[in-house]
Amino acid sequence: MWYIRALKFCARLLWPAHPEPAKSRKIAGYRLIFAGFSMLFIFCIIGMQSVALAIKNLPPSESLPSTIHDKTRGSIFDQKGRILASTVPINILYADPKHIFNPEQVASELLPFLPNLSKEILLEKLTKNSRFSELDRKLTPKRHSAILQLGIPGIYVKPSTIRIYPQGTEAAHIVGAVDRDNIGIAGIEKSQNEKLAAGENINLSIDTGLQTILRKALKTQIDKFEAIGGAGLILNMKTGEIIAATSLPDFDPNHIMLSTDAARFNQVTKGVYEMGSIFKVLNTAIALETGAIDMHRTVDVSKPIPIAGQIINDYKPIKGSITLAEILVRSSNIGSAHISQMIGPKTQRKYMKQLGLLEPSSLEIVENGVPLVPDDWSNITAMTVSYGYGLSVSMVQAAAAIAAAGGDGHFISPTLLKRNANEAIKKVRVFSKQTSKAVRSMMRLVVSHKLGTGNFADAHGYLVGGKTGTAEKIKNKDFNRNANRVSFVATFPVNDPAYLIMIMVDEPVKQKHSHNYATAGWVVAPAIRDIVNQISPILNVHPVDISKPENSQNLLPPMLLDGQEAVYATY
Length: 571
Hints:
The protein has 571 residues and is α+β, with helices and mostly antiparallel strands. The chain has two domains: 76-203, Penicillin-binding protein 2a (Domain 2) (Alpha-Beta Complex), CATH 3.90.1310.10; 211-236 and 271-546, DD-peptidase/beta-lactamase superfamily (Beta-lactamase).
């Protein structure tokens, strides 16, 4: 073979059998050159093998320093472009315990730069049986520089990214959060994870400014009435966009692992509840739409109704017969139950289905409640559903249904995503214009008339219409009169409904300042008034002077209330 002959030639050249004295110096030079190249070759082989072994012994994910992902996770914005969630680069400080020869000394040197770790925990991290032990996930440039100057073997830094939520608790339940690997685990972060992971931005319908107003007003009432929590939302009735939604208690998505299960639970979209008397709005609208009753017919509400071992009573007993308007304004359970029998259970169920109350909504969020629907929709079921018992739905579902009845008669599926200006909005007509106009008129009287249960919701000049609701909670397998969810749903302005506000407060406690009442009219209605006063200028809704003749008209022909034939639902 040629290389054997070459080796023999080199051997004869460097080590001749009988070297000539004159050539000995030259042969010695060849030998030195050969020895030098041989040593260099051997050193290179050893070095390459050492690097290969070092890389081979590390876990695959830690063989080389991690770099920021090719596609940074998309951001989440509110409808006005404010950042709700974003990804920023960070440095992660970590240790390779196998390269730490004196853990005690290393811990003492590092401890001043790691304020969130005790010496015991740091020692545990420096001695764990692993090639990677994370020490700090949010290493600031200043601490990074200081730690590098220590020159400690086995302490390394690698670039990564972290998800931040600049608005903190605002809209936390809607935005959601990610895990340590930037994978969505809740809210929009989870439901839109694929798009966000691909670098696509998401624009929500939420307005952070309105969100702050809603949350503050809700918290004020929760604190004032020593309640255990509450929730609220604001809906654009013309587009179906949810422009604010809050659930208290809440959490900071920047530190979601420190929050409780109760704080992470979204009462606006996930929780399903019996809504109480706000369902009387739907019962009234269905009765008018089907012709089961007209505005002039009266119903006897003087006698309680016994059903299935229970008694249907009114909170405040009413003598004699009253009209449909007065049944809603005075919130008569007895009257609503009688009207449900005029409608019939089959028809009532059909309308509840059209209003999206019998199945989960199409909301773009994983925390989407499943309604609790009765298996047998009997006459008894129809009675209890008429005043908000026997059917449990989410607040979002209730709001969308009432927006149809107290709006222009169209049902629009609610959304958490910002609609494009030219986007076609799918609308389903459920109620006629005449029916919805009558319902708006009655909702206005709930707030504006002295007999109404929602007088404290009247924001002067903004024409608020609404309905109170109180639902007893079940405790120990029975309804507890002292544990209520109180709610208020309001639309404004009633002459051209644009926005709906719904607020629920959980287990308010009677107070001296409320004359020992903890009903929706005392607990929630004042919050509605405050919210309307604050958000109307932002939403470009202008007040009107209802004392002027042109603004003091009926939405309908005069209704009979409290024996008077001329009652005006002014606008």
